User: What shape does this take?
Amino acid sequence: MDGIWAKIKATNFFKSIYRNDYPDTPRSRVQVILNSVLLHLHPVKVPKSAVKFTYTWGLGGSSVLMFLILTITGVLLMFYYIPSIPQAYFSIKGLETNVTYGMFLRNMHRWTAHGMVLLVFLHMTRVFYTGSYKPPREFNWVIGVFLLLITFLLSFTGYLLPWDQLAFWAITVGSNMAGAVPPAEYVGKYVRFALLGGYEVGQSTLIRWYTLHVIALPLTAILAMAVHFWRIRKDGGISSPGESGDVKE
Ligand code: HEM
Assistant: This one.
């Protein structure tokens, strides 16, 4: 068996995938991280204190997990949902009653969305509490605020899609609030028009928010997350207790 394994490892094909030897020295371990497209997003070295669960509470990672679940369940929902006023509500009703595990799928998406808002907020609270927004991580805090905004916008645009009374009136209230941005005559009026695709909530609003919800916002979130993770690495990995904040172990 060892002989076959040694032969496989000697092939050019194997070497084109795994460019390093078995990672058992500090140098070969660093090389494995640097040579992998996925692993290189991660810092090469992580201080022991930073992986202590009660430091990060896994809140950033859990936010990513929520995003992944939302992407998978969201794509599956797209197989059934129809973004047109006469059909939107009934496509969701049909999904709940006629499709196997349809209600489960819808609820997975909905509850995970609530979970993501909560977890991102808690993650931000942790970052604040441990003082991890301080130098050199100020810019990552700013990207974080942007991610928080995207998370809210994803939730809000998704809210309209079932086209039930709750959705319709929530969007009416929300877009009227946007319409009040001062000076309303010059800013609010146009923001409201852009959001609604007209003067009142209707088909143009639905298709606009659907496109934002399934394409524009998720892609922006993915891009912002990539920068967020890359920044963590460039800022020397996750902060350590007492390093940037006032909190000591
Ligand atoms: C979609 C939303 C977000 C995702 C998926 C995300 C993901 C992550 C992950 C995985 C980490 C590694 C450490 C950890 O798990 O706690 C992290 C760190 C960090 N995040 Fe976020 N984050 C998000 C939103 C935010 C927000 C809203 C803020 C602040 C306004 C923020 C600021 C930071 C900072 C400053 C760090 C570095 C913390 C340190 O070094 O201790 N992030 N983020």
Q: What stands out?
A: Residues 58-234 form a domain with the Cytochrome Bc1 Complex; Chain C fold (CATH 1.20.810.10). The first helix runs from residue 2 to 10.
